[in-house]
Amino acid sequence: MSQLTLNVNGQDHKVTVSDGGMPLLWVLRDLIGLTGTKYGCGIEVCGACTVMIDNQREHACVFDVSSAVGKKIVTIEGLSPNGSHPAQIAWIENQVPQCGYCQPGMIMCAAAAMKAGHHGAEIASELKNLCVCGTYPRIKQAVSKL
């Protein structure tokens, strides 16, 4: 067992994990209690587990937690304390979510693209996340305003 310190949403969290490697997703959800980041496919395809690590989007389902030590991790809970991030506002204004399960990952992907200086169509082309409800037209409409 190893004890690690992770900086998540601006706060340090000490966690104890097995030495065999553990995906960041399970540390966020099960050890730290941040359940906004979702498990979807577990093979880096759907994007439900998207978080930002040092301002880059990453899939937490395959990101080894030990690789996150010393980096700044941002989850949907830490994107903005009051839902005021432009991507969150666009999602609300365009009534994007249907079931909402995949939406935290979608918003985090859009937020990472915005951090990289991308806008509108650029963000839309980078958004490869899957949504089984099929809210893609509303997603496209929301990101067109970013």
Question: Describe it for me?
Answer:
The protein is an alpha+beta fold and 146 residues long. It has two domains: 2-79, Roll (Ubiquitin-like (UB roll)); 86-143, [2Fe-2S]-binding domain (DNA polymerase, domain 1), CATH 1.10.150. It is built from six helices and five strands, in the order ββαβββααααα. It has helices at 24-32, 76-79, 86-93, 103-115, 120-126, 136-143, and strands spanning 2-8, 11-17, 50-53, 56-59, 72-74. Strands 2-1-5-3-4 form a five-stranded mixed β-sheet, with helices on both faces. Strand 3 (50-53) and strand 4 form a beta hairpin. Helix 3 (86-93) packs across helix 6. The longest helix is centred in the last third of the chain and has 13 residues, at 103-115. The radius of gyration is 15 Å and the shape is globular.
